[in-house]
Amino acid sequence: MINALGNLVRNHLRLGGIGLILFATLGVQLVDASPSSASTVTNPALAKIGASGRFTTAIVMDGGIISVTPAPASVQTLQGIGGMTAKVWATQQLSGFAKQTLGWGYVTVRGTAQGEKRMNHVLAWVGFANGNTSGVCSKSSAGKFRTNGEAAAVLGDANFAEAISYVPAGCGVAQRSGYRVPDEVVSVPWVKVGTASARGVITFQTQVAQCGGLSGRTAVKGAGVEVLLYSQRPDWSAKVCSANIAKLGVPIAKTAAKANATHLIHGISGPVRQVVIG
To answer: How many Cα atoms are found within 13 Å in the side-chain-facing hemisphere of 207?
Structure first.
């Protein structure tokens, strides 16, 4: 595969021997709960959520690394649960982690990412995931996990609000551990440019964030080949980057004749979430 032009680079999504696949987020599971709850949980999976996605249980994760205070029932969010669910689970830092729960409330984060303001009682959406249940966290010589495996992605509810991800040390990819500006993985639309090269490579053009990366993949689909281009970019709520036109060469067949004769199919556009295979 040929790298995109400019400062765009390929991103490999690998976690040791664990394979990852990408697919579009489809649908949202909602859990009904009572309007309020006086309890506080340390395990985010036990938190209760209202139909709108509002946390009705207070959460104190990992000794207060991330805390959530339920918002009053009279408070409304600017963002819809469907769109924010797709964005949160498209966070690259959570790749390989098993989803636990997602909702919104007043969120406080103990640390901060470089260039970001600290989040203190900010109305935000937060998705909690666990790396122990999916096996992406390291174990001791005794075979016990070194951490409780809790990771999270927090996106401020207001437009261009702060955003941050937290991954415990020893889980997932080392470059994603600690507090980071979250990266969102998005399948972007494309147009075919010209004809295939002698080696069967076809160039595709798309518009992506200038501060992001671009990669692609193909898959046989019926009588054609599905082409998906993925942009990995800092979440828009954390960092705004100007649009950039990028081109990427993708191998379609072994010869120009076969590549040009191949029926090309657009993949689904939009945020995609990363899921562990087996």
So the answer is: 3
pTM listed for this prediction: 0.68
> Does residue 30 sit in the same domain as residue 166?
yes
Residue that finishes a domain, picked among 182, 202, 232: 182
Predicted confidence (pLDDT) per residue in 133-154, tens digit = 998 999 988 888 888 899 999 9
Question: How far is residue 26 from each of residues 29, 53, 93, 174, measured CA to CA in Å?
Answer: 10, 17, 20, 29
Residues 233/211, Cβ–Cβ less than 8 Å: yes
Tell me: do 160 and 265 sit in the same domain.
Answer: no
- pLDDT tens digits, 29-73: 333 333 344 589 999 999 999 989 999 999 999 999 999 999 999
Boundary (domain end) residue, out of 127, 160, 182: 182
Report the candidate in 104, 62, 247, 90 with the shortest Cα–Cα distance to residue 184. 90
β partners of residue 224: 221
Average pLDDT over the chain, rounded to whole?
A: 81
Asked whether residue 161 falls in the same domain as residue 48, the answer is: yes
Task: Give yes or no: residues 162 and 197 share one domain.
Answer: no
Per the structure, the complete domain to which residue 227 belongs is given by 185-271
Say if residue 158 is in the same domain as residue 84: yes
CA distance linking residue 66 with residue 10, whole number of Å: 31
Give the pLDDT of residue 209.
Answer: 74
Could you tell me whether strands 224-234 and 183-188 are parallel, antiparallel, or unpaired per DSSP bridges? antiparallel
Number of domains in the chain: 2
User: In this model, does residue 104 exceed pLDDT 60?
Assistant: yes
Which DSSP symbol is given to 55?
Answer: B
